[in-house]
Write a structure and sequence with these properties.
By secondary structure, the chain is α/β, with parallel strands linked by helices. The protein contains 11 helices and 17 strands. The protein folds into 2 domains: about 180 residues, Rossmann fold, CATH 3.40.50; about 150 residues, Rossmann fold, CATH 3.40.50.460. It is about 35% helix and about 20% strand. It starts with a strand and ends in a 7-residue tail after the last helix. Bound molecules: 6-O-phosphono-beta-D-fructofuranose.
Length: about 375
């Protein structure tokens, strides 16, 4: 009898997801009797009233490593333990459907799940493993905020996209003697921001790990202007804050999404700089989801393919309750508990990236 693996992509999408899927399917096709299934829209394909699961074959995954997004869709709303259900009055309630998921997985004869996702998805992996399901996790996020792996796929692509955008803002800033504030993603981690700032040559970079002081930023800006001539380019991470530690964003009001959405700190900084007396023209660009779309860089395609091959081999060897990781120069694995132990944030005192930024005269706003 053939063995079945269910592949799931969860949380926000990320360049490289399709390359992982293709890696799993291609590797499995070299063995006898493995069937790979894709669960549509994270676990929802098995949580909704109508089951939505598709076969993944070498034919239908052919060439998909080049494409961004995920061919089996994803969502960052709910999950098996908190499935969102719309109420008659328009509000949302959440239902634990994990037992239904388990029953359906057993009835379909699925032997193991490969769950490709970030920290939220891997917490779900751990809880499903506690329920007795066989799970292998694959780390995914443009934020690079998982500590047990050197890199997550998608991160390098996001940095490249942000850097290319930054380069474009530099030339227009210079032409108009303007200050540009470019807001990038990354949640509570400053990896995308600081890498982009160094790659692009920003004068100022603000990250969540280092609270900023508006008057220090204003002082730095003033050094960039003589008789109103000059320009200044700032990269700000969406999770950056002043010393009050209050992040900028909002709670979504619809779709059963319970996550605080970061966004708007670039505009907040603009207001703070005007308050500090900056009179030059300040423009804000929010890159948003551009950083998550499009074709993955070669580095991310390779890493994602390695993760896919490794994930299949872990299922084959029954190495469950673990997550694939990249620890240079090896692709290996750690327990899900270890993978979730702590996030990967920049450590300002010891990280060489911070040292480098300061070493080239970049202000980090402190
Ligand atoms: O975690 C990836 C990420 O893109 C973050 O950088 C960002 O804060 C968040 O997801 C945005 O999520 P959404 O697509 O739900 O707005």
């Amino acid at each position: 009898m053939s063995k079945k693996i269910l592949v799931v992509t969860g949380g926000g999408d990320c360049p490289g997801l399709n390359a992982v899927i293709r890696g799993i399917v291609k590797r499995a096709s070299l063995e006898k009797d493995w069937q790979i299934l894709g669960c549509i829209e994270s676990f929802n394909g098995l949580l909704k009233d109508d089951v939505d699961v598709i076969p993944l074959t070498p034919e239908n995954v052919s060439g998909i490593h080049v494409k961004g997004g995920t061919i089996i869709k994803t969502t960052n709303r709910g999950g098996p333990f908190q499935f969102p259900i719309r109420q008659a009055d328009g509000s949302w309630a959440f239902e634990d459907r994990s037992e239904l998921l388990k029953r359906r997985i057993e009835n379909m004869g699925i032997d193991a799940i490969i769950n490709i996702g970030g920290d939220g998805s891997q917490r779900i992996s751990l809880a499903l493993s506690d329920l007795g399901l066989n799970i292998v996790g694959v780390p995914k996020t443009i934020d690079n905020d998982l500590s047990s792996t050197d890199f997550t796929f998608g991160f390098q692509t996001a940095v490249q996209i942000a850097t290319e955008a930054f380069d474009k803002l530099v030339t227009t800033a210079e032409s108009h003697n303007r200050i540009f504030i470019m807001e990038v993603m990354g949640r509570d981690a400053g990896w995308i921001a600081l890498n982009t700032a160094i790659a692009g040559g920003a004068e100022i970079c603000l990250i969540p790990e280092i609270p900023y002081l508006p008057h220090i930023i204003a002082e730095k800006i003033n050094t960039r202007y003589t008789n109103n001539e000059g320009f200044c380019n700032i990269v700000i991470a969406e999770g950056a804050t002043t010393f009050d530690g209050v992040q900028t964003g909002s709670m979504p009001t619809d779709m059963g999404d319970q996550h605080f959405k970061l966004g708007g700190v670039g505009e907040k900084l603009k207001t703070e700089l005007i308050r500090e007396g900056i009179e030059h023209d300040i423009r804000v660009t929010v890159l948003g989801h551009l950083q998550r779309g499009g074709t993955p860089l070669a580095f991310d395609r390779v890493l994602a393919t390695e993760f896919g091959v490794k994930a299949f081999e872990m299922v084959k060897n029954q190495e469950y309750r673990k997550m694939v990781v990249y620890r240079h120069p090896k692709i290996s694995s750690v327990s899900l508990e270890k993978a979730l132990e702590k996030p990967n944030f920049i450590v300002p005192d010891t990280d060489f990236l911070v040292h480098t930024a300061r070493g080239i005269g970049m202000s980090l706003g402190d």
